C-alpha cells in the first residue's frame, strides 16, 4: 500500500509539473516559445551571426519540420516576427530562414522577384523542400544577414522544383527559375545548417 501511495504521489507531481508547460500545436519548444513571445508581431528578432560562436553552432544545426496549424496563434506570431525581421532597416534582405533568428524550424520568407505583376511580394513557406535541381547552372553574387560585411559569387541551379506547405495547411509544388531560385536555394540551405560559404569551399576543391 505504501509503494502504491508513493507511485500515485509521484505521478501527481509529474502531471502537475508537465501540465504547467504550454503546449504549442506547431511543435515549438519551451525555449523557442519564450523567444517568440518576447515581442509583438511588428517586433524584429535578433539575427544570429557567425561572428558569435554560440550563434554559429546553431546556424550549423539542421532544423525540424513544423506542424502546420492555422489556428496556432504562436505560429502566426512567429511568422509575423520573422517577416518583420527581414524587412527591418537593419536587415532588408531578400529572404530569411527561421534558424537565422534562433528558431530551428523549417520556415522561410522569400521575396518573389519573379512575380513582378504582383509587385514582387514576400511569401512565407513552411517545410519547403527542393525536390529537383536543373543541370543548368547560374552564378550570382550572394550575401547573408548572418554573415556580415561579406559577399561572394556562388554557383546554383538555374531552375528548381519546390514543394512546401502553406499557412492554411494546404500543400503546393511549383517550378522556380532565375535569381528567385537562388534565394530559395540559399534559404533552404539554412534549414539544413548550410551556409553559402560552403558552396564556395566546394567550388575551390573542385578546381584543378
UniProtKB/TrEMBL annotation:
Fe cation binds at residues 144, 186, 190. The active site is at 187. Residues 1-21 form the signal peptide. One of its GO terms (biological process) is translation. Its cofactor is Fe(2+). One of its GO terms (molecular function) is metal ion binding. It catalyses: N-terminal N-formyl-L-methionyl-[peptide] + H2O = N-terminal L-methionyl-[peptide] + formate. Binds 1 Fe(2+) ion. Keywords: Hydrolase, Iron, Metal-binding, Protein biosynthesis, Signal. Removes the formyl group from the N-terminal Met of newly synthesized proteins. Requires at least a dipeptide for an efficient rate of reaction. N-terminal L-methionine is a prerequisite for activity but the enzyme has broad specificity at other positions. Belongs to the polypeptide deformylase family. This is Peptide deformylase. The gene is def.
Amino acid at each position: 500500500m505504501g509503494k502504491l501511495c508513493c507511485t500515485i504521489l509521484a505521478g501527481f507531481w509529474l502531471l502537475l509539473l508537465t501540465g504547467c508547460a504550454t503546449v504549442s500545436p506547431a511543435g515549438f519548444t519551451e525555449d523557442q516559445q519564450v523567444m517568440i513571445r518576447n515581442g509583438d508581431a511588428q517586433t524584429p528578432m535578433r539575427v544570429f551571426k557567425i561572428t558569435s560562436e554560440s550563434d554559429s553552432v546553431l546556424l550549423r544545426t539542421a532544423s525540424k519540420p513544423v506542424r502546420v496549424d492555422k489556428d496556432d496563434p504562436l505560429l502566426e506570431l512567429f511568422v509575423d516576427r520573422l517577416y518583420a525581421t527581414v524587412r527591418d532597416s537593419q536587415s532588408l534582405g531578400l529572404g530569411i530562414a527561421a534558424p537565422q533568428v534562433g528558431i530551428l524550424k523549417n520556415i522561410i520568407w522569400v521575396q518573389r522577384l519573379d512575380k513582378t505583376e504582383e509587385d514582387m511580394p514576400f511569401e512565407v513557406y513552411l517545410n519547403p523542400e527542393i525536390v529537383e535541381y536543373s543541370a543548368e547552372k547560374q552564378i550570382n553574387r550572394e550575401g547573408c544577414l548572418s554573415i556580415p560585411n561579406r559577399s561572394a559569387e556562388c554557383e546554383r541551379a538555374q531552375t528548381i522544383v519546390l514543394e512546401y506547405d502553406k499557412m492554411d495547411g494546404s500543400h503546393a509544388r511549383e517550378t522556380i527559375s532565375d535569381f528567385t531560385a537562388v534565394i530559395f536555394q540559399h534559404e533552404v540551405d539554412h534549414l539544413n545548417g548550410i551556409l553559402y560559404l560552403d558552396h564556395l569551399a566546394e567550388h575551390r576543391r573542385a578546381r584543378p
